[in-house]
Amino acid sequence: MTDVRRAGERYRGGDPGAGIDTRHAFSFGPHYDPDNLRFGALIACNEERLAPGAGFDEHPHSHTEIVTWVVEGELTHRDSAGHETRVGPGDVQHLSAAAGVRHVERNDGPAPLTFLQMWLTPREPGGTPSYTLVPAAEGPVRYAVPAAGAVLHVRRPGAGERTAVPDAPWVYVHVVRGTVRLAGAELGPGDAARITGAEGLQALATAPAELLLWEMTP
């Protein structure tokens, strides 16, 4: 089964006056929707747009696997475990909050910043926080988050090219750029598909595209 969610259907949030524009794919904060709490292990897929100088002051997380993908600009990350990094397009940032961690996220650069932040629920709570930054690489990306039973795939098919959707109990597909045809639907930037029981599916790029695919198992 494929459930298509359009970019325009996301919940609007953030603080526009402070240069923060957030668009939530799942129930979040004051936008409570009991029918949209999670899909597989995924509980948040937030599109964040930060103006130069804007950001999120230090705040806590726990029992969450947080994966960040920068679309454009550069994200400054600092956390209570002593990590301070700058994350650019194509990098995969993974903060395992475990029993508890605090962090800061800011746009310290001169240009607007757009990034996706995805939260997954771990199979077991607790543990020691950890941080991983995988530098940008050419070609497809495969990044596993074993604690959540999930794998992130990044695909960049050219126009007319097909890319296979992983066979899995749950697959979440987010279109970052371009357009693709998937399960009879045309998807553009910001659109997503939640696929249950994926088997033998392919996405056809109708324009050069960048896709994030979460492959998730129980």
From TrEMBL:
Biased composition range(s): Basic and acidic residues: 1-13
Domain named Pirin N-terminal: residues: 18-120
Superkingdom per UniProt: Bacteria
Disordered: annotated segments: 1-20
Domain Quercetin 2,3-dioxygenase C-terminal cupin as annotated: residue spans: 171-216
Similarity-based family: Belongs to the pirin family.
Entry protein name: Pirin family protein
